[in-house]
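Final report, closing paragraph on structural work. Over the funding period we assembled a curated collection of sequence-structure pairs, and we close with a single example.
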Amino acid sequence: MADVNQGQYVEIGIAKERFAFRIQDIHEIIKMQQITEIPNSKPYLLGVINLRGTVAPVVSLRKRFGLPEIPFTKTSRIVIVSDEEAMVGLVVDQVYQVTSFQEIQPPPERIGGLDNRYIAGIGKTESDLVSLLKLDRILYDDTIHQ
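Its predicted structure, as stored:
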């Protein structure tokens, strides 16, 4: 887990759980905006947004994780990640902070209802445990919750 343990992470909230992405995977974090639906798309794909003239797909992490959708709130955000050359938006319930972890351990076989193929490890802070997400699996693995 040495490579996962390096660097900083952005902590996000989905439902009552805390997750984190490597800070270098994040391009920017924006407030919610109008999302244009795309007919016949994957169930977790909410649609697309106009990101300063570029069309970017937007994925619901709630749907991706098999959780029920809730109405967007004032804390809902779109986390824009760099996917090779394209930008992809990930809708989260809340963005908490930039953090680094004292210790990172491998994920257990199953984490609640989440299959561990989404989880790179579990980070320990002074007060919390945070699941570190595998961005490539969230974007490309269609064998799980859709």
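The chain has a mean pLDDT of 86. DSSP finds two helices and 13 strands in the chain. We thank the funder for supporting this effort.
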